[in-house]
Design goal:
At1g16640 B3 domain, 2 domains, 3 helices, single chain, alpha+beta, 162 residues
């Protein structure tokens, strides 16, 4: 099972859960459907007390593609990669370090509170940049338990050899 981060929103004195668009699209969720959410913080009680023991397995999302066309200047000029809010569930919480395996080696980084990878990214941008509006950044989860991901550029201008 893959853990994701959801946001609680208060609407007319009731709390609602905001599920990232990528998850709702991948699982084909529709308004009015029921989903199960595991609660792992206080108060501590047995998960079985909330729901039946048999849980349905869902498809894990193990990769994402980031379009960089909207934030190209920031990436090339300031050596930071913006992660749109809809993709932030894929990574550990803000300011929690994780590892990116890249063509220049392993980078230890994290997402800032404003949604950027900055730590360790300068060398990667120097080797892979300048990036173009048609390029996409492909991130694949390698090991969720150890927070290891792989990051590559899929260039819209180059034909892949795969």
């Amino acid at each position: 099972m893959r853990l994701i981060h959801v946001k609680l929103e208060k609407i007319r004195n009731s709390l609602f859960v905001k599920i990232p668009d990528l998850i709702s699209e991948a699982l084909h969720l529709k308004e009015g459907e029921e989903i199960e959410i595991s609660i792992h913080s206080e108060p501590s009680f047995a998960q079985g007390e909330l729901w039946e023991d048999e849980l349905e397995k869902t498809e894990d999302i193990n990769e994402i593609y980031l379009s960089i066309s909207e934030d190209l200047h920031t990436l090339n000029m300031y050596n930071r990669i913006y992660i749109p809010e809809k993709y932030r569930f894929f990574f550990p919480p803000a300011n929690t370090d994780f590892y990116l395996i890249t063509n220049i080696g392993q980078i230890k980084t994290h997402i800032t509170a404003s949604g950027y990878f900055t730590k360790g990214v300068r060398s990667w941008v120097e080797i892979n940049g300048p990036l173009e509006p048609t390029d996409k950044i492909h991130v694949t989860m390698i090991d969720d338990n150890r927070n290891v991901y792989e990051m590559n550029v899929d260039s819209g201008n180059k034909i892949s050899n795969n």
